[in-house]
Amino acid sequence: MAFTLVVSANNNKFILWHLYCARITSRKPLYVHAGMAWVYQGERIDRIQIYRVTLYCNNLWENLKKHAGCEKYITDEQCTLGTRCSISPCPRNLR
Q: How far is CA 36 from each of CA 9, 49, 87, rounded to the nearest angstrom?
């Protein structure tokens, strides 16, 4: 799971909860529609699966940055981290 802070053309801030499958970099256009996003990497187009989009909140953003990489706690579609996780709701709906 990855978390990316994006800013729209209207200067609205959002946090994307997505699978890390492509590097989203600043100043690269990101196209979002129906739970999917696309980013252009030169001549290649990378598709990104989005689990959740939230409005930017500084406290949430700081907590997400601390817990990035939660995939290491998922085994057999169950989260082994338990109650210590401060990410709520779970982007995978495992708790």
A: 18, 5, 21
